[in-house]
Amino acid sequence: MRVPAEEIVRAGYGAFLLVAPARALEAVARSPLDRASVRVARVLGVRHLAQAALVGSDPTPVRRLAGAVVDASHAGSMVLMARCSDSAVHRRLARRNATSASLFALTEGAAAAAGLRSDTTGIE
Q1: Distance between CA atoms of 108 and 16, rounded to whole angstroms?
Q2: pLDDT in tens, 29-46
Q3: Does residue 117 have a pLDDT over 70?
Q4: I want to staple 81 with a disulfide (CB 3.0 to 4.6 A). Which of 27, 55, 70, 94 is the partner?
Q5: What global pTM score does this model have?
Q6: Nearest Cα to 89, choosing from 27, 31, 17?
Q7: How far apart are the first and last CA of the chain?
Q8: What is the Cα–Cα distance from 84 to 82, expressed in whole angstroms?
Q9: Are 6 and 107 a contacting pair, CB within 8 Å?
Q10: Contact 18/45 with Cβ under 8 angstroms?
């Protein structure tokens, strides 16, 4: 079985967030991060690694769709954070995170749809 490229990218992103969260995000934030932001980035890295492992180990359309829902939910929460945060740094990080989560959601959703179409082509 081949691991989808999207899951390899996700795993790399997750590993980077887990191992070097400040380095990963300070360029985006354009300022040093506070401890809470670093902790949140590490948690997000673990979530990406877990999702890459779960979806990549058996990339069925259902798992990919579930991954798309998780990513879309994350994107929505980041949009809310970007609108509600008092911190310019947190708003900037939230907007960029919403963008990356949206891209993951679109990629997973498209892969799920393609898989569903190919699964139903042989059914009479």
Answers
A1: 20
A2: 888 888 988 999 999 999
A3: yes
A4: 94
A5: 0.87
A6: 31
A7: 26
A8: 6
A9: yes
A10: yes
